[in-house]
Predict the 3D structure of the following.
Amino acid sequence: MSGTAADRANNPDEILDLVDEDDRVIGTVRKAATDTDPSLVHREVAILVHREGQLLWQLRSAAKTVMPLTWDVASAGHVGAGEAPEVAARRELREELGLDVAVVALERRLVRAPGETYFAHVFAAAAPGRVEPVIDADEVASIEWCDEAGYRRWQADGRPLSPVGRELAEAFWSGRWEVSG
């Protein structure tokens, strides 16, 4: 995609499935409309990349429309029209972090944010060995690995963390999900 960094990071013309409150497809919608209208329920993915008790976090690019310069889970994004959430999760990992790894479904949750409503399909991915992701600067400003103690320091220091990212990290470290690696 050509254009500005903001266009590349946000792709406002992307077509998404419009879903009902049971996550059934009822039509399609432009991504730009979903960022400001909570009645347009759509699908997104969130991927927790982990290794040895650590989670990978990304600092969202300043060009992002939603939560710029906020620390979030390793990778997240929209599910395109007709795309399966697992396929979207693997695509987002490749696009944002240059990672081509298997993902495991953890849960699906309805998220009601001030400007949008979406089903978050949450996945985990075990990072092999000492692999270091290669970031797409249009999407991601920086990355950091963090264990639970470091995460608690971030909270105490007031680091800007996404609300959903906080919830997912808490669930990960509480042992709510069986994840290996």
